[in-house]
Amino acid sequence: MAMDKYDISGWLVRPAGIGWWAGLVAVLAALTTHTVLVTSDGGMDNGIVVDAARTWLDGGSPYDDEHFLYFPSAVMAASLQALLPRSVQDVLVPVAVVLALALGWVCALLLHRVPLRSRLAVLGLLGLAAGFAPFAQLVRLGNWTVTAVLALPLCLLLASRGRWVAAGTVIGVAVALKPLLAPMALLFLFARRWGALAPVVLVPAVSSVVAAFFLPDPTGFLTRTLPFLFTADDAFLRLYEAGPAVVLPRLGVPQALAQALAVAAAAVGVGCAYRRWRGPGPEPLRLAETSAGLMLSAFLVSRPSYNHYLLVVLPLLLAGLPYAGSVTRRPWFWLALVPQLPGVTWPWLESGKRRAFRDAVTLCVLAGTVAYHAVRGARGAPRAGEGAGRAADGWRAATEGAVRP
After folding, report:
1. More confident residue, 240 or 352
2. By CB atoms within 10 Å of each CB, which of 15, 177, 233, 395 scores lowest?
3. Residue 23, exposed/middle/buried by CB under 10 A (0-12, 13-18, 19+)?
4. Nearest-angstrom CA–CA distance, 372 and 116
5. What letter does residue 404 receive in the DSSP assignment?
6. Which ranges of 132-254 does DSSP label H, i.e. alpha helix?
7. pLDDT tens across 202-248, in order?
């Protein structure tokens, strides 16, 4: 890691003053309080899941709502919320979402061994909350994507410390709640951690099979949800989907060609992610950038694919900023985030019907940048333990400087 006087790494890892922390707390408190005052059931997306659980508790099938896209195991988890009064959920869910987002950021910092008292710890979370519009959208919606935002960095933190089975269990639990992190099974294949791959598959599979026996429509996810995801043309979802397979047809590209381009881009992304895993550099950085490449590739082809999905990978990448070899040192990484700046008016793209176009730009540019970095960035980096050793030495120098008065 470059640590000369012109590098920002040393400045980022030094302790932040109390004023910095006060600003961060004020922003998070304001966001949480505003959400509590304007939402019901903790947010629209959380309400969909909880309403499905209420339907089940009343004897119906949760899959009667075509927008309920979760495994049967999620019904059981949501039923706990369904038993709570709406007034309690209005407060509990926004607070829980903000706390989960903050904990995910903490895990990302610990993965990269960034001091929790550092300036990056404050500025990173503050930048996400105040400078990245999907952060506030996720809080307002109460979307269960937040489980993946917390689970992925926690998984990688455990893996970086050699606890791969525990890491696989975390992913398995997260998939049981929401299948968003299913592509992370490829990381365990890359690492040849077969024992750790087992809970990734078995936890959601077993929990869903058991939960299905308690549903009036045990095969509802297979007979209703999967066909809906693959074949349905839902006008409501389409307006907000950022994947090129959905956005390109809105620009006149034939559906078959758009789907083929998205699949090809995703395949290239997975190949680049494997290249990054096999490449040089510190293990935490390889874990973070490989996982980001896998998830972004999945977002290119998954349905639905929303802008707040980017919060699954963004904290992992941002926390690696002190590393000279991080993808965050590339200008296109930051340019990809420009369309998501809150308060910026983009002509002809502000309405809900067109917002997906700028979301698609962010997704595609970010995925392309991570894929390019995985190949070109790794090509010029030192091989084997040399690069990792130099990065570790530089990091120790930075953290030693961070604790000096």
Report:
1. 240
2. 233
3. middle
4. 30
5. -
6. 133-141, 145-160, 164-177, 185-190, 194-212, 220, 226-231, 235-238, 244-250
7. 999 999 999 999 988 888 888 888 877 776 566 767 778 889 988 99
